Amino acid sequence: MNKIQKDLLIIGAGPAGLGAALYAKRGGLDFSIVEKYMAGGQITNTEFIENYLGFKEEVSGFDLTKSFIDHCNVLGVNIDDYTDIGSIEPEKEKNLFKCKVLDSEDLYIVKSIIIATGASPKKLHVKGEKEKIGSGISFCATCDGALYKDKEVAVVGGGDTAVEEALFLTKFAKKVYIIHRRDELRAVEILQNRAFNNDKIEILWDSVIKEFIGDEKLEKISIKNLKDGKKYTKNIDGVFEYVGYKPNSDIVKDWINIDDNGFVITDEYMRTSLEGIYAVGDVRATPLRQVITAVSDGAIAATALDKHLRGLL
Ligand code: NAP
Known about the structure:
Elements: E1 2-11, H1 15-26, E2 31-34, H2 61-74, E3 79-80, E4 85-91, E5 96-101, E6 106-115, E7 119-121, H3 129-132, E8 137-138, H4 141-144, E9 152-156, H5 160-169, E10 175-179, H6 189-196, E11 201-204, E12 207-213, E13 220-225, E14 231-235, E15 238-241, E16 245-247, E17 277-279, H7 291-309
Helix pairs in contact: 1-2, 1-7, 5-6
């Protein structure tokens, strides 16, 4: 067993984890940052970001991520990519946490942890979906909606998010289809009424997408009506999937407070219900999940943690 002792382990290198790393480094903390996949998180799946302060031209999720990583690297932060923390074992009497790396002999023994593991949009898992994510399929209307000015888009789902985002998309698109698997929406009545009264929105009831079609970019979708069993294809420029989010909180959910949807509950310093554990970004119960708020969460957590380790907070 290779024991690695640190003051802090940051789990996840999306915007929240990288924001925490920047502030932890500048604060002189002894820490490691690990990432299950490649550093960057969900924004690497976003074609263009137009709402990150300071970037008035469109910037791709990939390029924005690269600038975050470069900034951290210049300060001497090394991100351990493809390092998956499989379990965390709190040792309350010693105020330590043992974090076991999956498929490895590495064991982190740390005084504190920043959970920056993000959330994963639930996917439809139908044919062609994987290939079109980032090329016509999006999970973020705030990020990508403006790219569909005067185009035809579809939103999948019937919950609050789907209806709210469909309404938002009408600011850009000339037509927004809501594709919902049942004959009534799950969304609250006020949102339903707004959708019903919006001329640009058409709801395809009892319908599911069976396939995403197109050479490089998305061109068509195959739709099945679940009531009469009929299948047809529809030309479409973009599809936004809103069939729920799953916070990546599995490694901590048994021993820290989470909300009904599995998001980790924190206070304003990003402290969870267990001393020494902080949560930032999309895994956290928060009213806004954007790159700018994730980076800010990371900065708050690392600063608060620095004070905590020095006995000041
Ligand atoms: P949600 O409430 O879980 O709704 C997900 C929607 O996707 C449902 O309509 C569901 O259909 C549909 N769906 C799920 N799996 C599907 C599949 N495989 N294929 C096709 N459709 C599928 O998720 P959400 O809308 O993201 O909301 C999450 C929580 O945040 C909710 O508690 C919501 O109230 C809250 N929220 C609140 C606001 C607000 O207050 N303004 C805004 C956004 C979200 P069924 O209806 O048939 O199950």
